[in-house]
Amino acid sequence: MMPFSGFFGDALLAGSCIAIASGLIGWFVVLRVQVFAGDALSHVAFTGALAAAAAGLDLRLGLFVATVAVALALAALGERARADDVTIGIVFVGTLGIGVLCLDLLNAGAAGANGTIAARTLFGSIFSLSAGEAQLAALIAAGIVAALLSIGRPLLFASLDEAVAAAGGVPVRALGFAFLALLGLDAAEATQAVGALLLLGLLAAPAGAAHRLTASPYRGMALSATIALVSMWIGLALSYWIAVLPPGGMVVLVAAAFYALTIVL
Amino acid sequence: MNPHLTWNLVADVRQLVEYRFMVNALLAASVVAVMAAVVGWFMVLRLQTFAGHTLSMMSFPGAAAAALVGLPLAAGYFAFCTAGALVIAGAAGGGGRRAPAQESAVIGTVGAVALALGFLGLSVYGGVLESLESLLFGSILGVTRGQVLTLAIVAVCVLSLLALAGRPLLFASIDEPLARARRVPVGSLSIAFLLVLGLAVAATAQITGVLLVFALLVAPAGIARELTPRIGAGLALSVLLGLVIAWVGLGLSYFTNHSPGFYVSTIAIVLYAGARLTRGLSTARARRGGPDAREALGGATDR
């Protein structure tokens, strides 16, 4: 039997909440064609964590401050709060550059733990969350979902037909900023579960599958969150039973398998 | 004696080429800069920056898989890169119309799967993450003469392929419906370009790191795009910018002991910010000056 207490229970709690938040956000990310921005923000999460480590601060502080700040910068750089892909690419390069500088500084310092910090940030460490950390992660994820649902209707309108929404008095630009800030929060949050390099899989794959399966927005959002949740459960269980399999990687592979199925079938 | 930067440029350059590793690094960076600038110019024109980044990650699972099975590393990353390019091309709707939302979801998923597989391979193989760090941030300062030669061969192949397909590719990139109507094989060109892009970045990233390749891929072309709408001038400017960014970045890294990736990407972002500011100012002036000023500026503000 699978024990639902201890570190696995904590991982399940945090992972489930993060999966639902990422599935919902991801549905909008794919609709708005902002997957590349999500990719960039995931690398920003890496830089933020390394910068916090180099400065001797709490990793999570670096994660959240960096991702939200860069998300707002991306929104400011684009017309109608949507940056084009060259701008995203260059911001991307710039943040990775700062990340490598932080890695240098860490290496130069006395701290010998930089390797584990880099690995933890890149690939997540969901099985080493404490009970308090897991509850905090769940709370933040719930907050992201609540915020997204509260702007859901106008955001949907603005994403589907920007011009008509703007003419109808919907604050398209402000919604773009708010959405990217939420994406930044979610990137920082998901980094703890699946890692900076893999969270893109949790954003893009369930949402891509949901968009292929249904054109109805609300059914699509529910489907995307469900696929993300099920992928998280299967991935965590696989990694729990077969210790050599990394949890973050398994979650992403399962989600991608769902997406591949919807394409092939 | 430790190298130090002086106001005497000749003395600086002499210090720079004093060591063999530095000469190799400069040669490798020059080759990568020229190749990346040309490929990147097409990539930016075709709005495929995201695909370029995803493909540059392909060498990680490729190397891990090759190590696991015991094949040469090159076989691993060429296999993964080809597979990645084909999947992305398929999602981009090889023959039919492009569906941007699905295309970007597939590219993102391919990237995440590649990294997940690479990580899985490493953890099954029992290897260390050091190889990942060097893939991401590179070790251009440790490049050997043999690797410089490999890079040069890859660059010659990539550049000649682009030269061969250049005109139809340009046509298909700028006006796809018209190119299709004129019987240009748009679908095959799209797949071929992704394959060339993938092979170029994966082979290079393996040696110099993803950060350096991606910076040299996107930044020079992005800056050139802000400054000129012309094709020839844009390509030339892109190559020139790539070389300058690579050389100055490596030079600063040599004199200050921070990694070249940091300097290359910082110079790139500063130049890009400058270029955007310049274009913003000239657009504003053109708006104030009325139609004559806009005409005098040529097409630069028409985008």
- Strand runs of chain A, count: 0
* CATH C-level category of chain B: Mainly Alpha
CATH H-level homologous superfamily name of chain B: ABC transporter involved in vitamin B12 uptake, BtuC
Q: Give the rounded overall mean pLDDT of chain B.
A: 82
What helical percentage do the residues of chain B reach? over 70%
Order of helices and strands of chain B: HHHHHHHHHHHHHH
CATH topology of chain B: ABC transporter involved in vitamin B12 uptake, BtuC
Helix-strand pattern of chain A, N to C?
Answer: HHHHHHHHHHHH
Overall spatial form of chain A: globular
For the largest beta-sheet of chain A, the strand count, sense and barrel status come to: none
Termini of chain A, distance in Å? 34 Å
Radius of gyration of chain A equals 18 Å
Largest interface: A-B, 55 and 51 residues
The share of residues in extended strands of chain B comes to under 5%
Description:
The complex is a heterodimer of chains A (265) and B (303). Chain A has helices at residues 6-31, 35-55, 59-77, 85-108, 114-123, 131-150, 152-160, 162-167, 172-194, 199-213, 217-241, 247-264. Chain A has 12 helices and no strands. Chain B has 303 residues and is mostly helical. In chain B, helix 2 (20-45) packs antiparallel against helix 10. The chains are: A mainly alpha (265), B mainly alpha (303). At the A-B interface, helix 2, helix 4, helix 5, helix 10 and helix 12 of A face helix 3, helix 6, helix 7, helix 11 and helix 13 of B.
Explain the layout of strands and helices:
The complex is a heterodimer of chains A (265) and B (303).
Chain A: H1 6-31, H2 35-55, H3 59-77, H4 85-108, H5 114-123, H6 131-150, H7 152-160, H8 162-167, H9 172-194, H10 199-213, H11 217-241, H12 247-264
Helix pairs in contact in A: 1-6, 1-9, 1-10, 1-11, 2-3, 2-4, 2-5, 2-9, 2-10, 3-9, 5-9, 6-9, 10-11, 10-12, 11-12
Chain B: H1 9-16, H2 20-45, H3 49-56, H4 59-69, H5 73-91, H6 100-125, H7 130-137, H8 145-174, H9 176-181, H10 186-208, H11 210-227, H12 231-256, H13 260-289, H14 291-296
Helix pairs in contact in B: 2-8, 2-10, 2-11, 2-12, 3-5, 3-6, 3-10, 3-11, 4-5, 4-6, 5-6, 5-10, 7-10, 8-10, 10-11, 11-12, 11-13, 12-13
